[in-house]
Each structure stands twice: as C-alpha cells, then as structure tokens.
Design goal:
The chain is of the alpha/beta class. It has 27 helices and 14 strands. The chain has three domains: 228 residues, Up-down Bundle (Growth Hormone, Chain: A); 263 residues, Vaccinia Virus protein VP39 (Rossmann fold); 195 residues, MFS general substrate transporter like domains (Growth Hormone, Chain: A, Up-down Bundle).
C-alpha cells in the first residue's frame, strides 16, 4: 500500500458508499410499492445485513492481499450487473398471495448488491488502516452525497431507473479501481458497462421494461398517468367511472367530476351527505382548512355547502400541482384554480403551526402516510398529524364556533376513531376545557357495510356544541346511512360514551381491548393500537385483518436470524483466526455497540425533527446529510484528537453521551420556538443542533479500528462487519423503543450505549492482546 495514489482510492471509496446509500434508500421506495409501506423498514435491514455479510466475507479472505485493486474492480463490475438482476427479480414476482418464504427470497436477493458493496468498503478500509481517519471520512462523505442525490434521482428517473443508476456508480468506481491496478483494458470495459447502463435507463424511461407490474400481490390496472418522487409513486387510473389517484399502488383518492359553476341539488347532496361531508351539514359555508386535500373531494364538499374561503394543504406535489393543476384540470373542472380555493403544497401540521388564521372547520379525511418516506425506518409513524400536541395546535386555530372534523375507518370495536377522541380530550384539557363530553360528536356512515369499511367522523369543537348545532346533527341523522355513535346530552352505552364520561381515561384505555391512550409528539405512533399484553394473540389473528402484518413480523425474524448468523459465523468458521487473548475478544463487542447506538440516535432524530422541517424527505435529507458530514469531519480529525490514547477515546465517548442528552433536552423547546422560521433557518438550526454530537460520533469507530490494529489486526474487517450487522438490530430496536418509551428515551438510550462502549474500552484497557 506504500505506492497507493490515495486521492484516487478515496474517490473510489466515496463513489462506492454513495452508490450503497442511494441503493438502500431507493430500495425503500420499491419495497413500499411492491409490498407494503412498512416493508420499507426491511430495505434498511437488507442493506445493513448485506454490508455486514460483505464485511464477514472479506474477513474470510483477509490474508489474501495480492491484486487488491483488480479484485475491487472485478467486484464493482459484478455489482453493476447484480443491481440489474436484483431489480428484475424483485419486480418480476408474480401476483398472488405472498408468503414469508417468497419474501425471504426477495430479502436475500436484494441483499446481494450490498454484500458486494460491503465487501469492497471493508477491504478498502482494512487495507488503508494507517489512514483510517481519512478513509472513513470519505466513506461518510460519499454516503452524504448519496443522500443529496436521492431526491433528484427519484424525481427525474423514477424508482426503477433510479435504482439502475446505482449500477453506473459501481461501474465508475470499477474504472477507478482498474486504473489503480494499471489495467487499461479492464478500465475501458468498466466505462463501457457504465455507458450500457446509461443507455438502458434511457430506453427503460421511454419504453419501460424493468418496471412495476404488480403491487401488494395484485396486478396493477392500466394507468393513464404515472410519476415518482422521493416519497411516493403516484398513478391515475379509471375506477367506477371516476379517476382515482393511487399512491404506491394502495392508498387512493378520487378526482371529483363536478362542474363547480353549475352544481345541481343532486350534486350538492352527493358531496355533503357523506361522512366527510357531515361537517358542512353542521356548519355550511364554513371558512375551512383541509389537511391532505388529495384529489379535491373535501374542497368540493366545502364549496358545495357555500364556503367562500377554503385552504387546501397537500404534501405531495405530484397530487397537488402536477395532477390537480396541470394534467387533470379538465377532469376536476379547474377546482384548484377557483378563487375560493387556496392550494398550498406542504405539511399540514407545519402549516397550522405557522399560520395566524383561524378556521370554522379543520378537516382531515383518511389522511395517513401509507406511502413510506425515503427514510423508510419509522413505518408506523404518521408525521405527527395524529398526536395530542397536534390536536392542541388545531384547536388553537379554530374560531369560537369552529370544530375539527377527522374521518377514520370505523372498526368494531372502535380503535382509530376512539383514539381520536382520546387525543381531543387531552388537547381540550390543555386548553382549559374540563367538560370534554360537551365537545364531541361521533358519526358513523353506512354501518350496514362490512365493519372494516365503515367510516367514523369525529367532530371536536373549540367550545361546547350549541343547541342549534345538535338540531342540525339530528336532522342529518334521519338519513339511514348515518348513525350517531355519540352526541352531547345523549351518551350511548358504547366505548365512546364510556371514555368521554370516564373519571379515569387512563384506566379505561388500560382495560380496553386496544391501546387508545393519547399519543404525543414524543410517541407519534397513532396507528399502533396493540396492547403489549396482546401482541401474541394479535399475531395469531392479524392475517384475518391485515395479511401484511404477520409477513412483516416473519421477515423481521428472518432479518434477525440472518444478522445473528453473520455475527456468529466468524467464531464458528474461523475460530483459529479469532483473537486468543480474552481482552481482545471482549473489545470486538465495542463495534456492534457503536452500530446500534449510531442508528438508534439517527432514526430518533429523523422522527423528532419531522415536525420542524415539514415533509419527511426534508427531515431525512437534513438529518442524515448533517450527521454524515459532521461524523466524517470527526473521523478526519480523530487521529489528531484521540492520538491512540485510551483516555482520550473514553473522553470522546463520554462527551457523546453528554451531548446527546443535551440534544434530547433542547430539541423539543428549540424546534417549537423555531416553528415560524423560514425553511432555510430551520435547516441551519437543525444542523447546528446535531453537529456537535455527530462530530464526536464520527471518532469512536476509526479510533477503535486503530486500537484493534495494535491488538489483533486481522480482525479489522470482522469489526466492520459486526458494526454493520448490528445496525440491523439497532434499527428495529429504535422502532420498538420509540413505540413503547418514546423518542426522548430512545435518544437517551442511544447516548447511554456510548457509555457502554466506554465501559468496554475501560475493561480492555490493560494488557492488550499481542498481534496474532
């Protein structure tokens, strides 16, 4: 390695890690469409497992040092082909019921490009250990650039082609490795592969061959329009004589077909005499804010009732702008160009926090984040729309005669709609209202339909509902499609009445079949209603209601088993090459602890800052990019700061714990104070808050590798493998902790794990094992 041209080696490493990250995040989008949104979490698991497996394989060949760059080039070229083959395999799965074994095949095949990528990175880092601070810096810098590239790649190319572009990056890195190996012919071959892949992307863009044909086990219907962005695949298809906007092949919103200048009485009745139209029967002509306007039906309902001021918020620019104001203007009869309708592209919760306006109706009908974000990690989160803190924000933006109108599916026994009531009760209590039973109306539409498809509309008023409001409610209830589940003054004997009149709502929720306790911004898991005591029973019955849930849990077990195998194999197969000295063996635990700690903190911060930054993609990009850049800088200076001194290394680990605790304490109040700031200022604040801890978090890994080199150099690649593989467990652990303990506690535990790493250094400080 003495004649290595280091700048070229760093460039090859950076391009490889860039490709690894783009591949990982693009795969979350593919998994979300082909399977289910919460399978996006598995894309991260696939990536980390593959990287860990690649590191383990490199450990198996750690004694073979000849022709390193030629081997790296061959691996990179093979990975270019592997990316195309893996994409074809995932997209070619036949329609029909999916089984755990089928998805396990997808898991393992999808992991193959990461195995090659992990093998390349671990080989480079191990063979450049004398400059590991620089190597790890370029490792993280490349990943940071991949984070920035993801959004434009998905927006410009779409999911499948963005994933194909990863093959180009691997081929370019292969050209660099072959150049370093001195092989002009192989370098030319690598460039040719890159050009062929670019041609394939152009052809696939114009005439899709490698494209989605199936989603959620069903064949996709003919689509007139398809567009991708960083957090969704949006298609428009004809269904029951109406145009439906389908997000990720699953969540649908329809385009209203009415002529808004010539609405008939039947048109007005069709729009307002529905569950989501019920607010406008109670408050016709209301000044309205709609969160998640979708195709425009809710805006149309407000117009049909006589509203002259309708603000419609839609987070997805494809739905709001491309479809609503360009491609389907004729079909929606110019709804979003009407003077009464003000369409805003953005996050609903962030808009509410930043506006000074007050509304008579704030409405959200079946708004959720089925389409997973590129973050892909918190598949059970809903962007803080459904928390007691959010409901307090909404209540504070109502006029005195205003109310919230939230529509969710009407299950029996009720779950989502009953939790809406819990959120409203908690928010009203914070607002100083001590008689919540006077502030609620709950209506179920069409109870004769199968129970999972009935719709509950929950109205929550800023002040108690007036007698005139209740008269209008009862008049509307005369229609057979409506049933009053709760009205003030006439509480029925059902869970809604029992909760609202309970003297101890916490005890009611604890004894109820589902967890309907209020969730806040620190526990933003509205849709997770399983009581801890019922997890096993739920798993046995879940397939009747949602077949994806047992599949997900089954694959999580596959992921854990595969990760455990990666971590255990070296000791089983290469026992003669493992450190013989107990202290050196114990120090290997340092690296998986770092892996779990880093990703736990990262995922908790992504969720924590979504409220401040708005759209999930912003939170992903800002948090991941900021952490990678700051950690890369920390790695760059790690050799100078730690200088091979265990005391300094332990000081860095202790400093991380302190800074993470400070960050956890400051994040909520500072982000609340910055709610009204411009986006650029919010990004700067977020980066400055994260940078100190992330800077130090970039030091322990290269510092630990240098320490390991002194005690047992052959284990460097094993350490890299253990760190990556343990991150799989860390991502799942972060979700579990976030659900049951909250994001604040997750941050504290992540910081505490750095203390555990400090303890490992302390235990192995004396009498390090000699080189084997």
């Amino acid at each position: 390695m003495s004649v290595v041209r280091w700048p070229q080696l760093y460039l090859g490493l950076a391009i490889t890690t860039l490709a690894n990250l783009v591949l990982e995040l693009a795969l979350t989008r593919i998994f979300s469409v082909v399977f289910y949104s919460h399978f996006a979490f598995l894309a991260i698991s696939v990536a980390l497992f593959g990287l860990g497996a690649g590191g383990m394989i490199s450990y198996a060949f750690s004694l073979r040092r000849e022709h390193l760059f030629a081997r790296l080039g061959t691996l990179a070229i093979a990975n270019s082909v592997c990316v195309v083959a893996s994409l074809w395999f995932v997209l070619s799965r036949p329609a029909g019921h999916m089984h755990v074994l089928t998805l396990a095949e997808v898991y393992l095949v999808s992991a193959l490009p990461f195995v090659f990528g992990g093998l390349i990175v671990s080989l480079v880092i191990a063979e450049s250990i004398e400059r590991v601070d620089r190597s790890y810096f370029f490792d993280l810098a490349g990943a940071a650039c991949g984070c920035l590239l993801l959004v434009p790649l998905l927006n410009l190319l779409g999911g499948p082609n963005a994933l194909l572009s990863v093959g180009i990056f691997y081929a370019v890195s292969a050209a660099i490795w072959f150049h370093l190996a001195g092989s002009a012919s192989r370098r030319a071959a690598a460039i040719a592969v890159a050009l062929l892949l670019a041609a394939l992307i152009v052809a696939n863009f114009e005439h899709p061959v490698l494209d989605l044909r199936m989603a959620k086990g069903e064949k996709l219907p003919p689509e007139r329009f398809v567009r991708w962005n960083s957090f969704s695949r949006v298609g428009v298809t004809r269904e029951d004589s109406l145009w439906s906007i389908v997000v990720d092949g699953d969540a649908a919103t329809r385009i209203p077909p009415y002529d808004w200048n010539n609405l008939t009485a039947d048109n007005r009745a069709a729009l307002t005499h529905t569950g989501p139209g019920y607010p406008y029967l109670v408050r016709p002509g209301a000044k309205t804010l709609i969160i998640g306007s979708g195709g425009g039906y809710d805006a149309g309902r407000a117009l049909a009732s006589g509203s002259r001021d309708v603000t419609a918020i839609e987070i997805n620019p494809i739905i709001a702008d491309t479809i609503g104001r360009r491609e389907f203007v004729t079909e929606n009869h110019g709804l979003f160009f009407r003077p009464e309708v003000h369409l805003i592209i953005g996050d609903g919760r962030s808009f509410v926090r930043n506006t000074r306006d007050r509304y008579q109706v704030i409405q959200a009908s079946h708004v959720n984040s089925w389409a997973s974000t590129a973050a892909g990690a918190f598949a059970l989160s809903e962007n803080n729309l459904y928390t007691s803190d959010a409901f307090y924000d909404y209540l504070m933006h109502l006029t005195d005669d205003g109310f919230l109108a939230f529509t969710r599916w009407g299950f029996d026994p009720p779950r989502e709609s009953l939790r809406l009531v819990s959120l409203g009760m908690d928010a009203l209590n914070r607002a100083g209202e001590d008689r919540p039973w006077l502030h609620f109306i709950v209506i179920r539409e069409d109870p004769a339909r199968p129970q999972d498809w009935s719709a509950d509309t929950v109205l929550i008023s800023r002040k108690p509902f007036s007698p005139e409001d209740l008269v209008r409610v009862r008049q509307a209830l005369a229609e057979p499609r409506f049933r009053g589940l709760y009205l003030p003054g006439d509480p029925p004997k059902n869970p809604f009445g029992e909760l609202l009149l309970s003297s101890n709502p916490k005890a009611f929720s604890a004894g109820y079949a589902y967890n309907v306790a209020p969730v806040d911004d620190d526990h933003p898991f509205f849709f997770y209603t399983i009581q801890p005591r019922d997890i096993w029973n739920f798993m046995r019955r879940a397939e009747k209601f949602n077949p994806s849930v047992p599949l997900l849990f089954g694959l999580i077990l596959v992921s854990i088993a595969a990760t455990g195998l990666v971590m255990a194999l070296p000791r089983l197969l290469f026992r003669n090459r493992m450190p013989k000295q107990p202290r050196a063996m114990r120090f290997l635990w340092y690296f998986p602890v770092l892996g779990v700690a880093y990703i736990s903190i990262e995922l908790a911060l992504i969720q924590k800052f979504m409220l401040l930054l708005g759209p999930p993609t912003y939170a992903l990009t800002v948090i991941v990019f900021s952490m990678l850049v700051a950690s890369g800088a920390g790695s760059f200076f790690s050799k100078r700061i730690i200088a091979g001194d265990d005391r300094r290394l332990m000081g860095v680990l202790a400093g991380i714990t302190i800074l993470v605790v400070v960050l956890a304490l400051l994040a909520t109040p500072l982000t609340a104070a910055a709610a009204g700031w411009p986006l650029f200022a919010k990004i700067v604040l977020t980066s400055l808050l994260i940078a100190p801890a992330a800077f130090l978090m970039g030091m322990p890994f290269p510092g630990g590798l240098r320490r390991l080199e002194q005690s047992h150099a052959p284990s460097i690649r094993l350490a890299w493998s253990l760190n990556s593989a343990a991150s799989v467990l860390g991502s799942g652990t972060a979700i579990f902790l976030g659900i049951y303990l909250g994001l604040f506690a997750t941050l504290l535990i992540g910081g505490g794990l750095y203390l555990a790493a400090l303890f490992i250094v302390l235990l192995t400080r004396r009498q390090r094992a000699p080189v084997m």
